[in-house]
Amino acid sequence: MRFQNLARFPDIGSNSYLMEFGDTRVVLDAGTHPKHTGTETLPLFELLEPDSVDAIFVSHPHLDHIGGLPVLMQQQITAAVAMTEPTRESGSALLHNSVNVMKAQKQELNEPAYPLYTHSKVDEMERLWFTRSPGEVFSIGHKERIECEFFRAGHVLGAVGVRMEWRGKSVFYTGDVHFENQTMTQAADFPEGKVDTLIIETTRGEHPRSPEYSREGEKRRLGEAIAETIARNGTVLIPVFAFGKTQELLLMLHELREEEVIPFVPVHIGGLSTKMSQIADRFADIEGRNHRSFEVLKDFEELKILPRGHREPEFHRGHIYALSSGMMSEHTVSNRFARRILASEEHSLFFVGYADELTPGGKLLEAGKGGSVQLDSHHEHETPIHCEVDRFDFSGHSPRDQIADYAVRCDPETVILVHGDTPARAWFLEELQRRLPDSRIIIPEPGESVEL
Length: 452
Ligand SMILES: [Zn+2]
Ligand SMILES: [Zn+2]
Hints:
Layout: E1 2-5, E2 17-21, E3 24-28, E4 55-57, H1 63-66, H2 69-75, E5 80-83, H3 85-108, H4 119-126, E6 129-131, E7 137-140, E8 146-152, E9 160-166, E10 169-173, E11 197-201, H5 215-231, E12 236-239, H6 245-258, E13 267-270, H7 272-282, H8 296-299, E14 303-305, E15 320-323, H9 333-342, E16 348-351, H10 360-367, E17 372-373, E18 383-384, E19 388-391, H11 400-410, E20 414-418, H12 422-435, E21 440-442, E22 449-451
Parallel strand pairs: 3-4, 4-5, 5-6, 10-11, 11-20, 12-15, 12-16, 13-14, 13-15, 16-19, 20-21
Antiparallel strand pairs: 1-2, 1-22, 2-3, 7-8, 8-9, 9-10, 17-18
Helix pairs in contact: 3-4, 3-7, 11-12
């Protein structure tokens, strides 16, 4: 067996890995990198011979795992492409949205390679995807059969890890994982027992989680902060990722209303969030989901949906706005709406997800109340931040110790560390070398191959 790292950079983004089982070749994920542009966003697909891949697995529909799939499929036309049903539905919507973003960026960034694919290409490719549910054993490969199975990964609805077995050897790829329940998505349900090669994500390797942390406590802290803002007649803006975080947040607000922590005020959503919530609602009864049968668009009371084509919702005092994008990227609803919120100290801006330091959301968090931020690169002026700014930890990734514990339980011969910044992988390397002294722990360089 052989593993090859197809990620172009040694951090998170453009996640893609090749596994070779004899002559049978499987690509795990095909993401794009959010911090680069043009063909630099793609994994090292040029290292693959055209039409040499037997199968492609997509662990979940975040763009750092699926964004490059149409490009890879064009190069690997006979590869079978497998994912879960929620990943297929939301992945298609997110890829179509990414076509729109690339078209806008083509002008703005003067990026001739954009769009990397078109709407019709996405439609064409999508027809070739096949779906499997966790618990279904299936096989891939023409010359030799590799036995495969998906396992729920917790992270977002429909996210999975993949187990592959070949000639008595097993490989498990975690994808992005959370071993604890979130409000909507239940904890990962990974296989226990011996694994020969384990490929793990290392997102949170750099920072330990505080021992006092609990998701329930953090939810209450958010609820109280919202209640205080509304009590002073202020408005709350919560920038959220359209897929995953929006639905998690709405269910959390639903619980906070029921627990009477927050008052019963209208909640606005808009942009891509509406589309992604529609898709999530279709899977309201799926295995691995809490609040079974609760459809956010139908059952969440006083939900205000921004009509299609409207750039910004109407502003109301005392309301809550959960708008995408989560990092307040330029030209998104949350970015435009932020101007109203930043202007007054009665209002609040609360972050509930990751915001990269180079994005408007990340810069705003860094500057904090009393600072100033450039929301839009076309405006030279910085906008002063008068409102309350806070962040809450509802990460969809497992704390590092839980992933390390899982790795130890797998008793692997080899552990491959992926999906993490350099210091994050370094922590896992040290921790696992100590706890698994007989195992090989590897941080693969971009393009590097490892014989297994
Ligand atoms: Zn993810
Ligand atoms: Zn990821």
